[in-house]
Structures are given as structure tokens and as C-alpha cells.
Amino acid sequence: MNPDLIILAGTVHTMDGLPSRNPEPQAVAVRDGVIAAVGSRADAAEWRAAEVIDFGDAVLTPGLVDCHIHPVFGLELTRGCDLSGAADLAAVRTLLRAEAAATAPGEWVRGWGLDPNVFGSAAAHRGLIDDAVSGRPCLLRLFDGHSALASSRALEIAGVTGPRAFDQAAEVVCDGSGRPTGLLLEAAAVELVARVMPAESFAERKVRLAELLTQFSRSGLTGAHVMDCNDDSLELYRALEEETDGGLPLRLRISPWCMPGTGEPDWRGLAGQIGVGGRRWEVAGIKLFVDGTVDNGTAWLFEPDAYGESVASFWPRPAEYAEAVLYFAGRGIPTATHAIGDAGVAAVLDAFESLPPGTPPGVHRIEHLETVPDELVGRFSRSGLIASMQPTHCTHYSRADHSDNWSTRLGTERANNAWRCADLRAAGTTLGLGSDWPIAPFEPLPILADAQLRRRSGRPGEQPIVPGQALSARQSLEGYTAHAARAAGEWDVSGSITVGKRADFTVFDLDPLAAAPDDLAAAQVLATFVDGQAQHSAEQHSAVGAGRSPLS
Fold first, then answer.
1. What confidence tens digit (pLDDT) does each residue in 320-332 have?
2. pTM above 0.85, yes or no
3. Domains recognised in the chain with CATH numbers
């Protein structure tokens, strides 16, 4: 055998689910972008590769894959001032004053990551930000990505003077006299203001996207399931790939949105995009929604939240959601449905359980599943659907004492059913993990840690949130490797270090299966490989053989 590359490491976690080997593997051979052999260092001495990279005592795993992320959509959501660290309204107003002072006259003031907890018991209102931005047009994106707060001047420019009707469960929130408060719920309402804001040029967006994808790679990611597809998303990916030697630094599996108010002609157009792609990116599924978020009162619950909200489907006619599921599933097209509330999750289960006999087998998922009662856990395990969840939504935005906005809205019983990762795994469900960036940070190591801790990593003084739902170290890593591959229907080609699968790897300086979670969160990703090609290197490692220095 004459592989192109041999990678050596002190520990190789294959994640193939097979019994341990003796000796444990410490070498992987790659040929033509595919794993050609897995063995010991002694075996590697016989393989005669053109290039050898020795990572010493480091740990090699299958490449990490984020199962829910928004690269292009996130470019828009993260323009302006980062408000995610603001703990109260005073801090928000201080940041906005600084942002307004740094923004040229006539331009919009922008912010993102606004936590609704900063408002306390008060309602979000434009009056709370108008003076901080000196009466200028301003749009602040709340952290959930489903809502925004607009200033009075922004509403005036957009011509938003009262309530509006939408094809989806969106709302221009108004006071008792019918005047908009500035709070905009769900995409259609937010778009009323967003569409009149100055847009970045294609070239500017391309530069930002290139840097973002590089950051993803540096964090340890070799792939991502992209849950959006904006008007120019595919053009951006294509342009980057054409200009980048070797292609994108990670694989992107893209799922465009299917929204309420659409019908078969629109669905036919979405179905026609399946398979469009390039070397490392492809449209491979469809994203749907049945509800919004708990924090802004647009989730779909069996019983109202503490404010009498979250009782409606995102599709005003829920039967049309089931028709859309039948359309795509009937054509063998994978789907992923955003469902956060218990009634929303039940509606997705209803739709898939009612599919007629003979429906082509397919990989179908529910995204988020933030509060789920016992009976739905059992139904979920029998449905064959895959769960896709984000541990840091729990650890960053809820609290063990239920004093946060999410828990307050739901009440104790439903808050105790929060992010039931362990119960779903125990029931035999495939569980992919991810970040939902920019809703939460994308770095995977802290997410792997938080999944085990049920609190924010690096903060040992915090109390864990429903600690019985903690994952083991192996289950957490599976959520980014083996189960991520199954969540994409790609277990035959990825997700484990197995001969014949893609040569996508992540290299750690600590063992993710043995390190204390807080230590893992602060660990270093030494390298990532896609198709056996180094995409990121934290430092130069020894190279032996006839090939070039691979990590220069």
C-alpha cells in the first residue's frame, strides 16, 4: 500500500462502535481523500506514505460536524454591536450609545444578541432605546434570531404604523392604542424593517463569510448542517469555492426554508434545488418550522405560557405543514423541522406518523425540542425521527433556579422538561448536536463540555440545569461525529474513522473522552483535515517522508 498521507497520534478514537482493539490504533492512512487503513505505529512503518504527520501524544477523532448553524443568515444577524454580554438594560444602553457615536451620521445603528432577560418584568419597547441612539434608526436583533426591537425612527422609515397580517404566525406588537411598540416577532415582521436598511455588497459579504468559515475550521469543525439558504447564499458558496485553492475549509450541507403561505409550485422549486452544489457544499434537505421560540411567546405549547402566549402554530393552517411534509418526504427529500414547544413537537410526530405506506425511506429530523413531556419522548423513539439539539441554548439562556425568561414563561413543570438529551439517548434516539450560531457561540469544545455539565463551562460556581439530562463524554462526542453523520444520512461515508470513509479528522491536545469537561472547553484544536488535506494547524508538527511540509 502506498497512501498519500499517514497521520500518527497517541490516541485515535474511531467512534465506529466496534470493540476495542489490541493494540489500540495510533495511525491512519489516507489515499485520494479516503481512509485507506487504520492501525498501529508498527503498521504505519510498512505503509510507505509520501507524507507522514506525527501529532505525538495528541488525540485524533472523526471530524467534528455542527448539526445546526447559520453562516450566511448569521452574517446579517451579527452586524453592529454585540449585546450578548449585556446583563441588564443599563449595559445595553451604554453599548448602544457607544455604537451610535461610532456610526456615521445618517447610518443605521445595529445590534445583535439582545437577551430579553435584560428587560426584567418590563416589556421590550422602542422607548427604551430611542434616546440611547439619539433618535436614529436602529434595529436590535434579539438573541433567539426570531425577533427584533426597532427604534421609533426605524419604524417611521419602514412605514410601520400599526398591526399587520402575515401568512405565518408573525406579529408587529402594538400597544392598547394600536401603536407599534417596536417589538417585531418572527421573520416576516422583522423583514418589514430589515428590507429598508442598507445592505452589504456581495463582495463585503463574501469576505466576511470566508473569514467566518476559517474560524469554524480553527474551532475544530470539518462540516456543518446549514439551516438556511438566503437569496445569494449559493452564489456566495460558489464564489468562495472558485477563489479558494482546495475548496471550502469544511463541508456544508444546506437546507433552504419552506415557509407558510407557500404551495406546490414553491415546493417544486425547493425540491429542484436538491443536489445543487460544489466540491464541499450541497443543497441536501429542506428546513420547515412549526413554531417560534419560548422567549418571545411564539412557541407552540399544549397550555399557554405564563403570559397567555405560545398557543399557536407557525403555520396558521397546521394541516398545510403536514401537506408540505408529505410532499418532500414522498419524494425522498430529507427534512428538518424547527419545533421547540411540546405541541409543536407533537405536531411534527403526527405529520410523520400519518405518512402513507410506501413513502420512501428518508432521514427526517426535529430541531431544538426544548421542552418535551414523557409521552413525547416515547413517541419520538418509536418514530425513527432524529433529534438535533443545542446544549448551550440550555446553559447560556436558562437558569437552575428558573428565574430566567424562558423558565418563567413555561413554569416549573415544563422547565423541568428542559433539553432532555439524556432521556432521548436512553430511548435509542439518534441525537445530533450543534450550536445554532449566531444564537449561541459556534466553538464545539465548550458545547461538548456543556452537554456533560448542564451548566456553562468555565463557571464551576453555577448550578447545573436539570442535571439528570447530562450526556456522557462519549455521547457528547457522538453528537458531533457518529450521530451527526446519521443525522445527515451519511453514516456510510462519514462519522467514524473507518476504511473507505472520508478522511475528515479533528486533532485535540486533550482527550475529549477522558478530560474534565471544564478542561476540554479550554483545550486546543491542533488541526483539522478535510479529504485528508490540512485545513487548520495550530502549530508546525514533525513531517517525515518525501512529501512537502504539510502544515506550513
1. 999 999 999 999 9
2. yes
3. 5-63+502-544 (2.30.40.10), 66-71+201-487 (3.20.20.140), 80-194 (3.10.310.70)
